[in-house]
Amino acid sequence: MTRTIHQLFDLSGQTALITGGSRGLGLQMAHALGEAGARLMLSSRKAEDLQEAVAELKAAGIDADYIAADCGREDDIRRLAQETVQRMGRIDILINNAGASWGAPAASHPVTAWDKVMNLNVRGYFILSQEVANLSMIPNGKGRIINISSIAGLAGNPPEMQTIAYNTSKGAVVNFTKALGGEWGVYGITVNAICPGFFPSKMSQGLLDKVGADVMASHAPLKRLGDDEDLKGLTLLYASDAGKHITGQWLAVDGGVSAIIGG
Predict the structure, then answer these.
(1) What is the per-residue pLDDT across 153-210, written as a single tens digit (0 to 9) for each?
(2) How does DSSP classify residue 190?
(3) Which of 18, 80, 214, 240 has the fewest CB atoms in 10 Å of its CB?
(4) Given this model, what pLDDT does residue 263 score?
């Protein structure tokens, strides 16, 4: 029998691992999955930030726990996946969200900074996806992987942005999503990406202070910045059976910016 829309979006009994989940977009997506009934495991580098995030989620009636891990370190990534499976039984949904940026002119961009950004934003996504798939999703014949890219991965930036490593890494995430979605569909795993536009966050605060919120919002056709609920709908679509026939895709959540920059 065809399910109702409420049944298709229901995540009751599902488990989700969210990296970079202690604040910002990661915490917003955690709320979305938890409000739909999923049990959550959050991860980031700092235990104290995770404790605050878990307390916030529990106050909202969401079943949540945390594991502190650095997704720029392979040993930490594998430990995170293994401990999550040990404690939760399986991982149905993985959100690869932990990320880094670096601002510098391309001509003088430190190679060490390039490597740091690429290591966390691309290599870390691959290692965690591989580990989670092998430990849980492939044996169970089902899984949902959501990669957080950016509209910075869809086109270039004005000269003053100077975030070549970040842009390159996020472009790689888009094609990583397509390639993995194409290969892992046979296992019942969907792999999709979200490309946020400008959302106020700790990572973007420097640019926000420099340029101003009104100026940043003026670049979007909708004349607004992203807020603390704008990723929730797409996250739930990708994670739930409502999106079970979607894989290898990306969608920008950016107020229309990518429509006018040619993404």
Answers:
(1) 999 888 888 999 999 999 999 999 999 999 999 999 999 999 999 998 776 666 666 6
(2) E
(3) 214
(4) 46
Could you give phi then psi for residue 163, rounded to 5 degrees? -125, 55
CATH number at residue 43: 3.40.50.720
142 located within any domain: yes
Q: pLDDT tens digits, residue range 23-36?
A: 999 999 999 999 99
Q: Is the pTM of the predicted complex or chain greater than 0.85?
A: yes
Give the angle subtended at the CA of 100 by the CAs of 95 and 101, to the nearest 5°: 135
- 8 Å CB contact between 63 and 36: no
Residue with tokens 């996806």: 129
Coil vs helix vs strand at 211: helix
Note the pLDDT tens digit of each residue in 234-243. 999 999 999 9
Instruction: Annotate 113-148 with DSSP letters as a single string.
Output: HHHHHHIIIIIHHHHHHHHHIIIIIHHHT-EEEEEE
Position 131 in a domain: yes
The domain total for the chain is 1
Per-residue pLDDT, 207: 66
Name beta bridge partners: 19.
Answer: 43
Q: Using pLDDT thresholds of 50, 70 and 90, give the confidence band for residue 72.
A: very high
Give the H or E element holding residue 66. Answer: strand 64-68
- CB-based burial of residue 234 (10 Å sphere; 0-12 exposed, 13-18 middle, 19+ buried)? buried
Range of the domain at 202: 10-254
**Segment (H or E) for 179:** helix 164-184
Sheet with 64-68: strands ordered across: 64-68, 39-44, 15-19, 93-96, 143-148, 189-196, 250-253
- Active-site positions read 166
Q: What mean pLDDT comes out for the span 120-125?
A: 98
Q: Does a structural domain hold residue 217?
A: yes
